[in-house]
């Protein structure tokens, strides 16, 4: 009796091999509730890329303290930014994938574009499984983090490698490592600033706030700090700013350890106290608005600045679905897709079917080499 060798959905005879892009973001809770936050934070904060404290000790702190108190507090913050469509991070990420697909399609490149979340849903493994089931044999992993860091970019790659480790027939995989100095990305940020300043004029100080990481990761070789500063310098140059016109800060500190400095909120308070009337805050490291920008910056930091005597606080929205950002993503994707076929699938299917007809077909009509 013939053995059923296939442990995964096989390519059916004549099915086209497809090229795909998986946009990967951090993830977000499924609902602004304490139970959803406990699940999300439990997964997020168990990742050794995110918290580099030895496991037994961290497990006790995480389960004994953090997951008992933080979910309720964080849920209240999420509730303040939640939209009828869901969490802003999830809404924007899905929209970016759809717009990137359409932009590539308009350029004559038919590729599958999906999004996945490192924590929460849809997971990286589930999206890779479904891409494979749709015939993807070449997958470009594009993390939505312009600056490389261990907790973000490397953690996405860990999830991809973990999926690959349990997959028999691994598709060709490519990874975008970073694009902190990509001209299109810098242009997209400059376009946001120009649009804002066209109506409001420039501020007394522009604060460029990046998510923080523990300072020791810099000394251990993480390029995040330097890449963030390079993004800031390129944006300033692009805007013709003098070094005194702007400041780079790091936000979202977690725990008691020293993180990258200067910290965003204390800097804003100092600026207000030293007589700076108007600040504009932009968050170039976040490709879409999320809790860290909408709540931490646009609510908490705004209040701290105004409370300390500042007069005007302008928050400049993330790149989200802005056309210049989608064009930048398209260009970044195209650079990394070079050499991979991106024609219409029906043309590939015809070529594949013809090849099989010439070769006499595959046993049982099952084909594991569709190109
Ligand atoms: C515990 C350590 C954390 C590290 C290190 C860290 C790095 C890091 N994070 C982002 C981007 C985002 N973080 C977001 C939320 C968030 N981050 C942490 C902790 C660390 N992040 C926590 C606990 C949370 C959850 C919210 C809370 O309870 O405070 C988000 C927003 C997600 C959303 O749902 O909107 C983003 C985006 C980067 C880029 C980064 C390192 C460079
Ligand atoms: Fe974070
Ligand atoms: Fe540096």
TrEMBL record:
The Enzyme Commission number assigned here is 4.98.1.1
Cite the entry's keywords alphabetically. Cytoplasm, Heme biosynthesis, Iron, Lyase, Metal-binding, Porphyrin biosynthesis
Residues bound to Fe(2+) are 211, 292
> Which catalytic reaction applies to this protein?
Fe-coproporphyrin III + 2 H(+) = coproporphyrin III + Fe(2+); heme b + 2 H(+) = protoporphyrin IX + Fe(2+)
Q: Where in the cell is it found?
A: Cytoplasm
Q: In which pathway does it act?
A: Porphyrin-containing compound metabolism; protoheme biosynthesis; protoheme from protoporphyrin-IX: step 1/1
Function, as annotated: Catalyzes the ferrous insertion into protoporphyrin IX.
Q: Which family does it belong to?
A: Belongs to the ferrochelatase family.
Please report the name of this protein according to its UniProt entry: Ferrochelatase
Which organism is this protein's natural source? Giesbergeria sinuosa
């Amino acid at each position: 009796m013939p053995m059923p060798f296939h442990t995964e959905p096989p390519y059916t005879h004549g099915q086209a091999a497809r090229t795909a892009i998986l946009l990967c973001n951090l993830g977000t809770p499924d609902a602004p509730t304490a139970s959803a936050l406990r699940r999300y934070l439990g997964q997020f904060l168990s990742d050794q890329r995110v918290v580099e404290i030895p496991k037994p000790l961290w497990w006790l702190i995480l389960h004994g303290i953090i997951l008992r108190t933080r979910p309720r507090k964080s849920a209240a913050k999420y509730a303040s930014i939640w939209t009828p469509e869901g969490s802003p991070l999830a809404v924007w990420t899905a929209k970016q994938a759809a717009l990137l697909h359409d932009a590539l399609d308009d350029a004559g490149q038919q590729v599958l574009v999906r999004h996945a979340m490192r924590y929460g849903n849809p997971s990286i493994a589930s999206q890779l499984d479904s891409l494979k089931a749709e015939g993807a044999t070449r997958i470009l992993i594009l993390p939505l983090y312009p600056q490389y860091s261990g907790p973000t970019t490397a953690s996405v790659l860990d999830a991809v490698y973990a999926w690959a480790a349990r997959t028999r027939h691994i598709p060709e995989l490519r990874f975008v490592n970073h694009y902190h100095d990509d001209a299109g990305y810098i242009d997209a940020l400059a376009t946001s600033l120009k649009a804002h300043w066209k109506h409001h004029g420039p501020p007394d100080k522009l604060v460029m706030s990046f998510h923080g990481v523990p300072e020791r990761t810099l000394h251990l070789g993480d390029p995040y700090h330097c890449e963030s500063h390079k993004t800031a310098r390129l944006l300033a140059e692009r805007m013709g700013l003098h070094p005194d016109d702007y400041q780079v800060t790091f936000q979202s500190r977690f725990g008691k350890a020293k993180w990258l400095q200067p910290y965003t909120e204390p800097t804003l308070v100092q600026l207000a106290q030293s007589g700076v009337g108007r600040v504009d805050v932009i968050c170039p490291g976040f490709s879409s608005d999320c809790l860290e920008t909408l709540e931490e910056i646009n609510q908490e930091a705004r209040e701290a600045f105004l409370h300390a005597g500042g007069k005007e606080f302008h928050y400049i929205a993330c790149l989200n679905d802005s056309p210049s950002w989608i064009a930048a993503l398209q260009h970044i994707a195209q650079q990394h897709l070079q050499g991979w076929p991106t024609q219409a699938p029906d043309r590939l299917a015809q070529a594949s079917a013809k090849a099989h007809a010439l070769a006499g077909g595959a046993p049982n009509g099952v084909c594991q080499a569709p190109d």
